[in-house]
Hints:
Largest sheet: 9 strands, mixed
Helix content: 10-25%
CATH architecture of the largest domain: 4-Layer Sandwich
CATH superfamily of the largest domain: Metallo-dependent phosphatases
Amino acid sequence: MKILHLSDLHVTHDGRELNQLWGRARPAVAGQRFDFVVISGDLTQRAAPLEYAKLKRFLEAEIEPLVIGDRATVKTRVVIIPGNHDVDWSAEVFDTLALANANVELAKQWFADGQWRPETQPYRVKVGNLGHASAFQIRNDHYHLRFTAVQAFLTDYYGDQLAHPHRPFALLDPRGTGTGDWQAHVFPDLHVALLGFNSSYRNDRYWHGAQIHEDAITEARDHVDRLDQNRSFLRIGVWHHGLESHRNRPDRLTFENLTALVTSGIKVGFHGHVHKSHAQLHRFITDDFALVSTGTLGAASDDRPDAVANQFSIVDLHRNRLRVDVYESEGLGAYSAREDRRRFMYFDLDIEQPFDISKPVRSWASHITRRVTLDPETGVAKIDVEIDDLDLSEPIVLARVHVALCTAPEATAMVDGQRLPVSQRQVGSYIELRSNGWTQKHYRRLTWSYRIANAFALTRGEPTLLAKRAEYPHLLDGCEVWSHRVQFDYDRLTLELVYDAPEGAYFASGRAPEGTPVITPIVERRISGGPLQWERLGSEESRASKIVANARRCSVSWPSPMANARYGMMFPLANPGDSLNRPYAIATTKLVDLCRSARRRGEGLRTLLATYLEASIKRALDRKDEEESFDEHAVAVGNLWNADEQLLRPCFGFFPPDAWVTQFEAGRGIAGHAFRFGRPAAWHRRITGDFDVIRVPTMLGTRDYEWILCLPILTTPAGTPIGVFGFAGTRDHNTETTNQLAQFAQQIAQRDPRIDTSAFESFWYVLNASFWYGLAEASDSSILDRGVIEMAQECSTAFLTARETQSVPAVPSPTSDDG
């Protein structure tokens, strides 16, 4: 969250008004919006009603427009607390003690209490310039009247906006028990509570010290506890006095006060009074506590220490990081941020359990955008990463890609006009693309991109086929998700997805408004000890903003996302898609088991299908029967889909024994891509394109192929696939057959619509028809399951009908020359 911190507004410049002084600050905050504004005391110079009237006009005209939220409740996000200058010294709250007529011992007691225990005793002592002394006793029934003017201002300013769950100051409570000396701004939906305290509750004309009533701290804690029984809210405290002061002056909080604030659950404290910025992390045994002060906005130079300029601060607060940017103005000049006064603090503010205990990276950025451009023809997504104002304190991860997916990252990132290398390393089941070796400094702009295949479903029939489904336990049926795991702190995260097609819809539309896609922000946090690896965070999901969506484009943005949480957008897919019908899926799975079995029936079926495959290749390519089709350096394999495993498995063909262990998920590799889309896919070393992303890199110790060609095995000429024919060859060992297949691979890899692919289309048809004819022939030998037999008969009939009604070539039989 972003907080504007103002303090010590009391104007001591001769003839100047607060709105005039703010004119120098206005350009520095132009265009910025703040989650909260904190004003930590000394609202006026003399607690005069006229000063408060001017302050109210200033806040409503200049400050409230800078605050995020509904205008009707904007004041709840402006936290105002009194300071010592808001104590009205003109209020008649003392009785003068007659020292001349008093008992000596009693007079000594008055002096002792007034000098050494003024914060707890009802006596005050004043020593004049000539050394004469006066003693006074507090009138308990009038003492609260010191706050009459400031309480009138607070009541007038807030009106009824601080109703439950908030709670206003009641500074005129005559009991003096601390009940009225605290104020609460509680936002359960944001899991944030800001608590204001009166650190001047014993401050008066004769004692200028500081103290917060311990009962005020206790009551404020109990108030929030009733709304936050799990203590998951981030609690922020605001008061006026700091921990330091000039020697022999009492205007500072005690360590006991600080300890009480920390034990109440407050993690961050804002204060003023010292007229200069400061940020410090206090480490207790079980807690980290951050204390932040800012300088005075209104005091003249004579009232500022050490020639410190007028100041205000902007604080970026996250659960594990706080950054303070101090803005200063010298003389009558404009305010500007001082780099030498920028402060970073890293601490543990994770207060929800159980949670991911991994610490966030100690870097920061103002805005991160991750934009996906999805190509529906290939399923390849280009992901553009943009980072603004990156403060690099240690290496960051630019992307994490699951090893089950195929990716092609750019080798360098453009950073402030120069190219910096992007390194890779494998961590568990992920590949991390990192900024290792970059100089630790501030970068204004970073752009980088990578391509990834098989990461997004295109239809409602696909999500169960893609490898990542198990990682998203909250993903609804028929939906897809685009997410990003936050590893360090930034002010804003924007996720965008573009469906790169001239027409057609990718996102399914909802009911109202008509035609608008249903985009659901989803935020998850990894947990331990539960049935699911991730739990949803409804409070974070509700903070999503700037949701833009149409049929082919959507984006979602979050301010100040939490480190270690996963932010995303879930959406229903518009296209139902085509999927393999269940009887065929069951039959194909049984066929896989039979082909891969060591029994004689399996060996016989493999041999028969391989024979049909070779015969169809020779006939389709017009090769002689005696010619060798594939040598030991090439492969021709029939991969079939095992629906139980959700994998393509090699079942027949010509390939080395070690290839039996290969497998492909739907969409993974050239074979998986051909199966997923039901159309040919290819890769050729000489052709650069999307298939470079799809190809699975060759494993160490295996052949380094020059080309790969994969053709779906279809149930009908325009049907869904049950498997894939796969071919691959090397550069130096070729036959006439593999040379022709290599040319086909080039044609498909180029994706050039001007290329005549009629010969290839004929080849593909012949291979499909031959497979089904061979399987139908095997049906006659009664070695197949009934479901497989029925599928073989239906599909072979479909191809035979296509041959008779369309101009397609004859399909050869291994035992006949006339097909």
